[in-house]
Amino acid sequence: LWAQQIIADEVAKLCYERFSQLPRRGKPEPGREWTLLAAVVRQDGPVHFAMEVVSLGTGTKCIGQTAMSPTGVCRWTFCVSDAEDANK
Predict the structure, then answer these.
(1) Which domain holds residue 76?
(2) Name one GO biological process term (predicted).
(3) Are 67 and 78 in contact (CB under 8 A)?
(4) Backbone phi, then psi, for 37, in 5-degree steps?
(5) Whole-angstrom Cα distance, residue 45 to residue 39?
(6) Exposed (0-12), middle (13-18) or buried (19+): which is 20, by Cβ within 10 Å?
(7) Residue whose C-alpha is closest to residue 64's, from 53, 52, 72, 56
(8) How high is the pLDDT of residue 48?
(9) How many domains does the chain have?
(10) pLDDT tens per residue across span 8-28
(11) Residue 56: which of 5, 12, 6, 8 has the closest Cα?
């Protein structure tokens, strides 16, 4: 189990390193704001050190009230109000 944690930590490290290489524009203000970070990581072969971040996405935007039901659930099956692709 600890080997899986080491791989997970390496994936997270790769993602944060790639995120830190992006320009400051559009990133949250440290200590004041936050954002979600999602990534796709490619692994070449069974060795965990041969990994590469191939896509990175960030962003949080509120779904407007008109898209929400009275119970707070999105009215549609699939809702994305905003997405930024940092893989440019």
Answers:
(1) 2-85
(2) tRNA processing
(3) no
(4) -130, 125
(5) 19
(6) exposed
(7) 72
(8) 55
(9) 1
(10) 999 999 999 999 998 988 788
(11) 12
Amino acid occupying residue 83: A
Can you give the pLDDT of all 88 residues of the chain as single tens digits?
788 888 899 999 999 999 999 898 878 888 888 888 889 999 887 765 688 999 988 876 655 656 666 665 665 555 554 544 444 4
- Whether the pTM exceeds 0.90: the reply is no
**Angle at CA of residue 41, ends 17 and 18, nearest 5°:** 15
How far is Cα 24 from Cα 38, in angstroms, rounded to an integer? 17
Residue type, 37: L
